[in-house]
Amino acid sequence: MSPEPQTRARRSDAYRNDERILVAAREVFAELGADAPVSAIADRAGVGMSALYRRYPSKDDLMRAIMRDTMERTEREALRALDEPDAWAGFLGFVHACADAGITGAPRISGAVRPTEEMLARSKRAREAVQALVERTQAEGGLRADVNAHDIVFLLGELRSQRAAKVIAPPGVQERLLGVVLDGLRAPNATPLTARPGTWEDMHEAWRAAQREHG
Q1: Rounded to whole angstroms, how far apart are CA atoms 35 and 162?
Q2: Confidence band (pLDDT; 50, 70, 90) for 215?
Q3: How far apart are CA 91 and CA 182, in angstroms?
Q4: Do 114 and 160 meet the contact criterion of CB atoms below 8 Å apart?
Q5: Three-class DSSP category at 97
Q6: Which of 19, 94, 121, 208 could cysteine-pair with 81, CB 3.0–4.6 Å?
Q7: For the segment 119-161, what is each residue's pLDDT rounded down to a tens digit?
Q8: Which residue(s) pair with 26 in the sheet?
Q9: CA angle 178, 183, 185 (to 5 degrees)
Q10: How far apart are CA 182 and CA 170, in angstroms?
């Protein structure tokens, strides 16, 4: 095999290993929490510890990769929804796509790892895309006027966590709860919210607090 095909093959193997590691990490963190041993992730992924550490030198690096992937997926789905001709249909598709992503694991690990400036920038970009979707849906009258991107992101986090945690419940209950949540987001007959809406400054300070906590 010539050097070029060998290089492509190695890159392909590395990509497959990376995908297996991330999927395994989501599952293991969802099951065992942020204190899960890295060895359990390597075993679940079917890779050696050396392969895992080559890609992610520390568990924090692995957690950050999962968080970045969630942010990127949220932004991508929001931008896709903005292309839908019908604003409410696009918003529904966005919520369902992000909630369903929790099936592969969306563990709540944000408080267990020190965030970076790059992660802050990614989070802001994702929330801006969600805010554009929120404002478009509100302008067409489908979404209640007193919610913003931060409300939606928090709701999605809860929905993802429920799916990732595999909470014992009757069949279909998560879909029913999602329906209740979506009805609560509809504009007609919405009861005004009493607490003030969150802002990016609130989110930024929360991230900063996490940075201080982790030194």
Answers
A1: 19
A2: low
A3: 10
A4: no
A5: helix
A6: 94
A7: 889 989 999 999 999 999 999 999 999 999 999 998 888 777 6
A8: none
A9: 100
A10: 20
